[in-house]
UniProtKB/TrEMBL annotation:
Keywords, alphabetical: Periplasm, Signal, Transport
Gene Ontology CC terms: periplasmic space
Protein name: Spermidine/putrescine ABC transporter, periplasmic binding protein, putative
Listed GO MF terms: polyamine binding
Length: 379
């Protein structure tokens, strides 16, 4: 963004105004002046969808860049991919929030300038300094979007009343028709909530951890499969699976918009928020390009694209982004409850204590949870 000198404007705009206008700026800058330049490739490590044309094509055309995405599923796999790659391999890293602290401890990401991003426009105070995104007063990641995980089900097999508790997964009629998204954190977090651990769902002592394992194992006879993104999507779409553990509207929302009889709700035991954030890879030679793209995704236009992402929807995290979504796509804003005053408004659910931010285990290691997950799958 061009730095102006004093007196350049009759009234200089605020940083927030400049950042909110950033989306329009990066898409309206004349392309002719740099038409001669070779296209800059930006290597992205992300969940599937973030480097697809519906998100990046317009930005690529306006800025003479090309995103080269490498997709992963699950933070454990993300960390492994980075560990196996030379520093500077990835310019942009889209991470689940609970793994940002791991990225920072391993020195995989660069420090970021808070002044570059609209932190004063976030929808919730927690989002301004989201857990794990800051260390020693320094910022290392920018929260991009979120979504809620709870009970996901076929409305022809599970009633709305039954879906008010994770207990519905044990419904006898669903034997062999309950699926799992194949990652331990979402499922074990839900089992911990079902066991009554509430806000301490990730901070389990030995007895509580034993109980979570026991509860999870008791569900095994209901399970018809463990699926990646595509398998989870198709299992619900074709009706092979009548309920799915470990997901939420990020899967059922896509199907629901296509008319499938599926839904996701936050049950009485509470739900989990997944949070996706952008960091800049350590050693990247394209820090400025990465920063500029993150600014675009935090602009109202970028937040709308994120909320409408074809692969899986998400919640806006800025006030300006939510306002832009309501104006541009009121049907999606209504469907996803991103409306002020809606009792299922994601922000309302956080304020009511019904949503818990996804984290990593506090008293066990990730390996402990993953080892149990492997045992569970093979049982």
């Amino acid at each position: 963004m061009t730095k102006t000198t004093p007196g350049s404007f009759m009234s200089a705009p605020s940083r927030r105004q400049l950042l909110k206008a950033g989306g329009a700026a990066v898409l309206s800058t004349p392309f002719v002046s740099r038409a001669w330049a070779s296209t800059t490739e930006i290597n992205m490590l992300a969940w599937y969808g973030h480097g697809e044309p519906d998100i990046v094509a317009e930005y690529e055309a306006a800025n003479n860049v090309k995103f080269v995405p490498k997709y992963y599923a699950g933070g454990d796999n993300m960390l492994a991919l980075i560990a196996q790659s030379p520093p500077g391999t990835y310019d942009l890293i889209l991470s689940d929030a609970e793994f940002v602290q791991q990225l920072n401890l391993a020195e995989y990401i660069e420090e970021m300038n808070p002044g570059d991003y609209p932190l004063d426009d976030m929808l919730h105070e927690d989002f301004t300094q989201f857990p794990g995104h800051w260390a020693d007063g320094k910022m290392y990641s920018m929260m991009l979007r979120g979504g809620h995980l709870g009970v996901s089900y076929n409305t022809n097999s599970v009633s709305a009343e039954e879906a008010e508790s994770y207990a519905c997964f044990w419904k006898p009629e669903l034997e062999g028709k309950v699926g799992h998204f194949d990652w331990h954190l979402p499922t074990l977090g839900m089992m911990s909530l079902y066991d009554g651990n509430g806000a301490n769902l990730w901070n389990l002592d030995d007895d509580q951890w034993d109980k979570v394992q026991e509860t999870t194992m008791s569900l095994r006879k209901q399970v018809g499969g463990f699926f990646d993104y595509g398998g989870t999507f198709n299992g619900l779409k074709n009706g092979e699976m009548q309920a799915m553990v470990g997901i939420g509207d990020w899967i059922t929302g896509v199907l629901e918009k296509d008319g499938a009889p599926v839904a996701s709700v936050i049950p009485k035991e509470g739900g989990i928020q997944f949070t996706e954030s952008y960091s800049i890879g350590k050693g990247s030679e394209k820090v400025e390009e990465a920063r500029k793209f993150i600014q675009y995704m935090m602009s109202p236009a970028g937040q709308v694209k994120s909320a409408q992402m074809a692969a899986y929807p998400g919640f806006c995290v800025t006030k300006a982004g939510r306002a832009a979504l309501i104006e541009a796509d009121p049907a999606e804003a209504q469907r996803s409850h991103q409306i002020d005053g809606d009792p299922q408004d994601p922000i309302t659910l956080i304020n009511e204590g019904r949503i818990h931010y996804r984290d990593i285990p506090q008293q066990q290691s990730l390996e402990d949870w993953n080892d149990f997950w492997s045992e569970y799958k093979s049982a």
